[in-house]
Amino acid sequence: MRWGGQGEAGRTAAAALLALASAGLSACVDKADQPRPVAQGDPARGLAVIEAVGCAACHTIPGVAWPEGRSGGDLAGFGARPFIAGRLPNQPGVLTRWLIDAPSLDPGTAMPPMPLNQAQARDVAAYLYTLDDD
Ligand code: HEC
């Protein structure tokens, strides 16, 4: 009798887990085009890094009042763009590498290597992914 009861509870729990798992999967599919959170990245720290290293000398960046550089393009809406510089997949790992050393991904790019360590690049990427509307 007790076993039967526990089995019932176990089946219910398993069904609930399955339901959760499939809900999670469809949520992933739905979010494929949405901004990607960067594991361990802190957007607030990222903004501070952006200001410290001077990205805005070349880019107009929402949240940075001055300067509003033009040579690198406007980063408004960057979080919702599918590509970095129109040709690399806009994914956290690619973006952090781009931020540290863009020419290693594309020798022809005019974006210079930036003096960021991994953690700083993750923070900057996390901030850029908050810029999801134009
Ligand atoms: C000396 C100017 C310069 C500086 C400084 C600079 N960038 Fe760039 N950046 C560029 C240029 C030019 C491009 C376009 C590259 C291309 O299309 O090959 C670019 C491209 C990008 C892109 C891709 C934009 C898109 O629309 O896909 C991102 C994101 C980016 N930069 C972020 C940053 C961040 C963050 C910093 C500071 C850590 C920074 N950049 C510093 C010049 C610069």
UniProtKB/TrEMBL annotation:
SUPFAM superfamilies registered for this protein in UniProt: Cytochrome c
Lineage: Bacteria, Pseudomonadati, Pseudomonadota, Alphaproteobacteria, Caulobacterales
Keywords per UniProt: Heme, Iron, Metal-binding, Signal
Alphabetized Gene3D superfamilies for the sequence: Cytochrome c-like domain (1.10.760.10)
InterPro entries: Cyt_c-like_dom, Cyt_c-like_dom_sf
Domain of life from the UniProt record: Bacteria
Stretch forming the signal peptide: 1-27
Protein name: Mono/diheme cytochrome c family protein
Source species of the chain: Brevundimonas aurantiaca
Gene Ontology molecular function, alphabetical: electron transfer activity; heme binding; metal ion binding
